Amino acid sequence: MRILITGAAGFLGSHLCDRFLAEGHHVVGVDNFITGRPDNLAHLMGRRDFRFLEHDVTEYLYVEGPLDGVLHFASPASPVDYLEKPIQTLKVGSLGTHKALGLAKAKNARFLLASTSEVYGDPLVHPQPESYWGNVNPVGPRGVYDEAKRFAEAITMAYHRFHGVETRIVRIFNTYGPRMRPEDGRVVSNFIVQALRGDPISVYGDGAQTRSFTYVDDLVEGIYRLFLSDRVEPTNIGNPGEFTVRQLAERVLEMTGSASQIQTHPLPEDDPKVRKPDITAARAALGWEPRVNLEEGLSRTIPYFRQVVEETQTAARTL
Ligand code: NAD
Ligand code: UDP
Q1: What is the 3-state secondary structure (H, E, C) of 202-228?
Q2: 215 is a catalytic site residue
């Protein structure tokens, strides 16, 4: 197959490029580097089965040749990023999804949307099954991301129902692993980098809010299976292991052997209190479930950040 991936230079997009190439497919990566990095794709440049287009997907997207799949992963994803880039976030979720769907329709390709557990907002149902419609504040600071993704799901279903495009929607729960930006502001990267640098660990609020953390390899496996399946309905892919933010901080401190102290900060507005996927549908339809628990995932992620932190310290010393 020939697959186009938007957001290819990002954390998840770059891992997906690797997976599709490893399965023997050809990949066209598209990115404008707004939150992604050329480094994430450096190892693929020059391969005959990989092409890269630097392009903003909110603008008309022209691609030569056939395509069998379009995976739309372009979007700022960290709360810090989308609060800094609210208009770009709304545009890539709405106009960008429209352009990516138009491309899939023109090429008669299967389309897969990267949606999010954020469509459930601050959920009143716990854990969250796909049938839950969510509790989102449209005008709060997180609304730019949540509502863009909800619109993206709606237009994806409209292209499916009205134009007959083959579509898939994955609702991704907090995913972590190598290639995250050390400064991207998400909790796992923040805590590991702070612990490795000996800086205070920034717990927002009392740290009693929960998240379910998915290791990137598990997520990629789930997305690959969903893409090949015939399941049109949105599908949660996430690890149901649920931890408070404070538990995560303690686990990171233990595993890095850091002497950093926990320091509390005000809780950001509309920060969801709980989050945990119901993965009954993914188990039944895809035979998928996560294999990497938090401890194992952190032990694979910490060495990556250790190297990043050492490189930045060396660079700072040579300046
Ligand atoms: P990321 O910021 O690392 O990657 C996003 C990529 O999209 C970046 O490379 C960025 O430059 C690119 N991009 C943004 N706007 C663009 C535009 N207009 N044109 C072209 N490229 C553009 O984030 P990520 O964690 O890899 O997330 C990827 C996708 O998965 C996003 O759609 C995000 O909403 C979704 N998602 C991620 C998580 C997670 O835990 N990582 C959870 C839920 C959903
Ligand atoms: N968080 C934290 N300290 C940080 C970064 C995040 O306590 O340095 C908290 C944040 O308030 C939220 C949880 O960790 O409750 C997950 O935050 P993240 O930004 O990773 O993603 P979210 O799930 O909120 O989209």
Answers
A1: EEECCCCCEEECEEHHHHHHHHHHHHH
A2: no
Cβ atoms 265, 199 nearer than 8 A: no
Task: State which ligand 2 atom lies nearest to the alpha carbon of 209.
Answer: 15
Contact by Cβ (8 Å): 48, 89: no
What pLDDT, in 10s, does the model give residues 153-196?
A: 999 999 999 999 999 999 999 999 999 999 999 999 999 999 99
- Tokens of residue 36, six digits: 């992604």
What pLDDT does residue 317 have? 82
Question: Cβ of 119: how many Cβ atoms within 10 Å?
Answer: 23
Round to whole Å and give the CA distance between 222 and 170.
9
Q: Is the backbone of residue 293 left (phi > 0), alpha (psi -120 to 50) or beta?
A: beta
- Residue ranges and CATH numbers for the domains of the chain are 2-179+214-239+274-292 (3.40.50.720), 187-208+242-270+297-318 (3.90.25.10)
Residue 21: partners with Cβ closer than 8 Å, 6 or more residues away? 27, 44, 47, 49, 50
What does the pLDDT read at residue 318? Answer: 80
Nearest CA to ligand 2 atom 3: 203
Q: Ligand 2 — pocket residues by CB below 6 A?
A: 78-79, 174, 186-187, 190, 202-204, 209, 211, 245, 268, 271
Q: Is 116 helix (H, G, I), strand (E, B) or coil?
A: strand
> What's the confidence (pLDDT) of residue 242?
98
Answer yes or no: are the C-beta atoms of 72 and 111 closer than 8 Å: yes
